[in-house]
Specification:
By secondary structure, the protein is mainly alpha-helical. The chain contains 2 helices and no strands. The relative contact order is 0.12.
Length: about 100
C-alpha cells in the first residue's frame, strides 16, 4: 500500500473525536491527581500547581499516544471487515440472479 492510499487516523471521524476526548480526560485526570497528591504531601500552592500542569501535559501525551496506537490497529481492521462484507454480499447476490428468471 502506498503512502497516498494509506488511511490516516486524523481523517477518521470517530477516531478524531475519541482522540480529542481521551486527550482532554488524560490532561484533566493527570492535573487533578498530581495537584491532590502534591497538596497532600504538604507542598505549597505554586509548586503543587506547577507539578499539576506538568503532569497534566504528560498524561495528555500518554493518552494521545495510547489512543492513536489503538486506532492505527482498528482502522485497517475496519477496512478489511468492510471489504469482507461487500465480498460476501456480492457472492450471495450472484447465485440469486440466475434463479429469479426461472420462476
Amino acid at each position: 500500500m502506498s503512502q497516498e492510499s494509506k488511511p490516516k487516523v486524523s481523517e477518521h471521524p470517530v477516531a478524531a473525536r475519541q482522540i480529542a476526548r481521551a486527550r482532554a480526560w488524560g490532561a484533566l485526570i493527570g492535573f487533578v491527581l498530581a495537584y491532590w497528591l502534591s497538596r497532600r504531601a504538604g507542598l505549597p500552592f505554586p509548586e503543587s500547581g506547577g507539578r499539576a500542569l506538568v503532569a497534566g501535559l504528560a498524561c495528555r501525551m500518554l493518552a494521545w499516544a495510547a489512543v492513536v496506537t489503538v486506532w492505527r490497529q482498528l482502522i485497517p481492521a475496519q477496512i478489511a471487515a468492510a471489504r469482507q462484507r461487500s465480498l460476501m454480499a456480492a457472492q450471495q447476490a450472484a447465485p440469486g440472479r440466475g434463479s429469479q428468471g426461472t420462476s
